[in-house]
Amino acid sequence: MAKIERHPAPEKLLMQVTKEAINALELGGADRLRDAAPLERGVDLIVKAWGLPQEIHQASVDLIQKEKELVRSGSREAALPDGEMLEAYDGEMIVELLWGLFETAVKLENAQERAEMHKLAILMAESLSLDSWIAQCGPAAAAEK
C-alpha cells in the first residue's frame, strides 16, 4: 500500500479524480455518461486551483474522452490498464482524497467553484463508502474490541 499523505500532490489528486471519472464511465455504461460530469469538472478545477500545466490537464481530458468513446462503442476495452481500474480504497486513502479536494476548494477564488469541489468531495465520500469505513474502523468499533 502506498504511503498516505496529508497533503497529496495536486498531480496525484488529479490522477485519482481522472481514474474515478473513468471508473464511473465504465460502470455506468453508455446510458449514464453524464454521471461522470462532476468528476470531469473536478479535473478542470484541480488544474485551475493548483495552476497545473496544460499538458497534464489535456492528458486527463484525453483519457476521459477515450473512455467515453470506448463505452459508446460498446467495447470491452478501457482507457486504463486493468490494474488501475476500480482500485479499492481503504479509509485512509479516502480521507487523503477528500483532504486534497478540500484543499483544492480553498485555493479556488470563485464561491461557485468552491461549492462544486465541496459537492465532489461529498460524492466521493459516498461513492467510496467513507461512512462504512468509519463504522468498521472508527472509535465505536475500537470501543467494542
How are the elements arranged and paired?
Blueprint: H1 10-28, H2 37-50, H3 54-73, H4 91-107, H5 111-127, H6 130-137, H7 139-144
Throw out a few tags for this protein:
145 residues; mainly alpha; globular
Describe the fold and architecture.
The chain is mainly α. Helix content is 70%, strand content 0%. The chain has seven helices and no strands. The chain has helices at residues 10-28, 37-50, 54-73, 91-107, 111-127, 130-137, 139-144. α2 packs across α4. The two termini are 25 Å apart. The mean pLDDT is 86.
What is the residue-mean pLDDT, rounded to a whole number? 86
Number of helices: 7
For the record, give the distance between the C-alpha atoms at the N and C termini, rounded to a whole number. 25 Å
Secondary structure class reads mainly alpha
Number of strands: 0
Percentage of residues in DSSP E strands = under 5%
What series of H and E elements makes up the topology?
A: HHHHHHH
Any idea what the radius of gyration is?
Answer: 16 Å
Low-pLDDT stretches are none
Shape: globular
Helix content: 55-70%
Largest sheet: none
